Amino acid sequence: MKTITFFFGTMLIACIPFTANAQFMMFGGGNPARQDSLRKIAAADYADMLAKVGVSQPREGRQPNSQDESKHPNYDELIANPYPFYPDPLVTESGKKVTSAKMWNKVRRPEIVRLFEDNVYGRIPANVPGVKWEVTNEEKKEFAGKQVVVRYLKGVVDNSSYPAITVEIQANVVYPEGKQNLPVIIEFGFGGGDPTRSFSRAGSVSWQQMVIERGWAAATINPSSIQADAGSGLTNGIIGLCNKGEHRQPTDWGSLRAWGWGLSRLIDYFETDKTFDATKCAIEGVSRYGKASLVAMAFEPRIAAGFIASSGKAGAAGWRRDCGESIGNIVSNEEYHWVCGNLIKYGADPLTENDIPVDQHELIALCAPRACFISTGSWSGDKWQDVVGSFISASKASPVYELLGYKGVGTDLFPGMDNGLMDGRLTYRQHHGGHEAGPNWPFFLDFFEREVVGR
Ligand code: GCU
Prior knowledge:
- The protein has one domain: Rossmann fold, CATH 3.40.50.1820.
- The protein is built from 13 helices and 13 strands.
- The protein has helices spanning about 20-25, 30-55, 100-120, 205-215, 235-240, 255-270, 290-300, 325-330, 345, 360-365, 380, 385-405, 440-455, and strands spanning about 1-10, 10-20, 130-145, 145-155, 170-175, 180-190, 200, 205, 215-220, 275-285, 305-310, 370-375, 425-430.
- The structure holds alpha-D-glucopyranuronic acid (GCU).
- Alpha-D-glucopyranuronic acid binds near residues 8, 9, 288, 329 and 384.
């Protein structure tokens, strides 16, 4: 067993004992020769995709640490909106105004789904195989003042179409013993460890503790056990299995979509056990997992609520904004695996962000009318992820919530720190912490209680 500490940005996400060790191996296991070979695999995969989309060199992403100041990110709000006109979620491709819930669901929503699939996140292939869940271990203990059960799960993907690739989804769930129909809060995190010893904090207590105190279930799913968080893994994992070990096509799914697919399979599992109420599931994630949470919720209508924390570009922040990271960062060889190959075109001249036929407020709109909480940290701690841009997207998604009969964030004026816009089905709150979910956990749980548990 190895214990690994992962740092994403300034935040300590987790420090967890691994059994399967997939993530560690994916990054070369600390072995320089292996790391070098993985870099080469990623470079070949990236070159293959650039050739497929006809791009020789995407624009460089922002480089906060560069000696060359012209490469630094922009943080000046006065010049952060070079493309101030966003696609209207309530106008169809043929130019008709969307005036009813029926028209949204039948015409406009499917249009937006297809635009995101073809230009940003990719499509889930038709041949994606099934998953069989197994309980690998179960323990009873006391936690958060309650008797709880900790259940460890393994979702084995049917690989009979290509036995060279094995995919086993790691997840776990902790819940108060002897109860039924429990709402479940799920985190994209590291599924191998004991959730009662989680280091993922919400103030002085772990988020799992807060969830158990409220009498609900807390689950974790390990994204890297579904699909690696690296370009070198694209011919492996669930994406590689569906492609029988070959490179992706430009509209094939990336890791964000694959992680969302894995989450849907976990919800399938919760549907089979009366302990859980699968109609009351929430997903939470921070940073790249904040992006994954929003993508999952947008495409999976069974997810009742989302806590989308510090998700930045490819998450809640608009492509049309120039603040913090840029499309060049996302389509670089370090991050392109999160998205589909076609997105690279918009990060390469002559196309710009303004040519993307959708923007991220429309991803939030796909969640409507379900309970969606857009969270950011303080300006100083979270500006790379575009704090204001995330709010703007929530504001621009609000008309869709309103069309469906619910309140959105209710304003287009940035509310400032610790002043949440909390009374709608779509909420925004900037907390005083850094690049993390931490201080917003109690606010999200209150929101979930009001909009999902008590509805
Ligand atoms: C980088 C990247 C972000 C991402 C973050 C993370 O900073 O630019 O888009 O959210 O990594 O997930 O750690």
